[in-house]
Amino acid sequence: MAQERRRILIRGTGTVGYEFIRRLCLFTASGHPYFDWEEIIFDKRSPFEKNVPKIKQLQELIKEGVRPRLCTRKERVEEFKQIGLQPTYTLEEALERADVVFDATPSGGENKRLYETYAGDGRVFIAEGSEFKKKKQFGDIFVSGVNERAVLDNLQRGGQFFVVGSCNTHAIARNVLLIKKAFPSLPQEEIRIEATVLRRSDDPNKEQTTTSFSFSRFDEEYVEEGSYHAYNVLAAFRSVGDEGIKLRVTVAKLADPFMHCLLWKVTLPTRIPDARERFMEAVIADPFCSRTGYRQANIVYWESKEVKRFDVAPWLLRDRCYSHTIVCLPTVGTRVSDGKTVLEYCTFTPQDSNVILSNLEMACMAKNPDAFSTEEFHNLVAPLLEPREI
Ligand SMILES: NC(=O)c1ccc[n+]([C@@H]2O[C@H](COP(=O)([O-])OP(=O)(O)OC[C@H]3O[C@@H](n4cnc5c(N)ncnc54)[C@H](OP(=O)(O)O)[C@@H]3O)[C@@H](O)[C@H]2O)c1
Q: Which residues contact 20 (CB under 8 A, 6 or more apart)?
């Protein structure tokens, strides 16, 4: 039995890092054994005055017990003090202390060399989404609901480097799961799944916004899969022995501040008259899938950020949509082409929140893989996913 890891360091307090730290602190206050961290440390790189209120809010989230502690690079400590923030540790001290390190910066891949110098004694390092490339891998991919079994096995065998799949990787994987569940009796290698991701170019909280549109260039690294998203989804399924999925994903980037949109075309091997109904049953049954009657990304974005439930404990307060994917109901339809049913529909991706629960799940798995149950974790966070109508 591996020793439990009890001290966590999260690097980066941006879109993903901040919300992850906030949720982790809230769950730690819940007292659930999956979250009984002895120490939570977070790393802030730049001593920006404008960030002070948010950092103070984080530090004050937990009134008793474990309080999140700030760290920064040694040479920055004095500058942080000047803006009224008191780092408890230098980054180097925090890296020495932590036995689980989350890199929620866009530089996970580059930071790996640093982490390797601390990797001697069973620490686990986790990076985010786009840091899982064919040629330059940070670690093995984790996509919630797909390959917990492979990640837990890996941890139990001493694996130390992992990547939590990106928001679109989660959305694509969830749609593959929906299609598998809707058509379980069809040979999956004969179902062709094609998706086009229309990516929003920036998060709405970013200072600079892109105003240009760009197609993804033909990516020679992903000739078969079309993009790293599909490569990552296939890698996650392959890690649990699921080899037969036929998936291709292409990408374009839009000057849109709202939500990623995905356009789906699923070609079934034969004519299935009730394909739409079967698909809708799978959508309704899936706890990680939301649905909306709105076609407009701005409305779905706005509604998904609304606080939707107040009747729960603070750590379960649903103040954004944590679902992996949101199916746009008015777009779901079928047609017949060459004697085969083609299912077409669109989805939205709750970009900056669908990976937060997966980060929490990955943290719990890394903390104590021997005591972790996927079912128990998913039941624990289930109230955060409700209601699923937008
Ligand atoms: N945004 C999303 O919705 C989303 C969804 C899924 C996955 N991801 C992935 O998550 C990662 C983080 O994305 P994000 O959108 O949260 O980024 P972000 O909002 O731009 O925030 C980046 C954070 O990382 C810090 N940082 C940047 N470079 C650093 C370095 N070299 N060393 C230490 N700290 C550094 C920044 O610190 P300072 O501000 O203090 O300089 C900032 O706090 C990326 O890999 C991204 O692909 C993002």
A: 10, 102, 104, 356, 359, 360
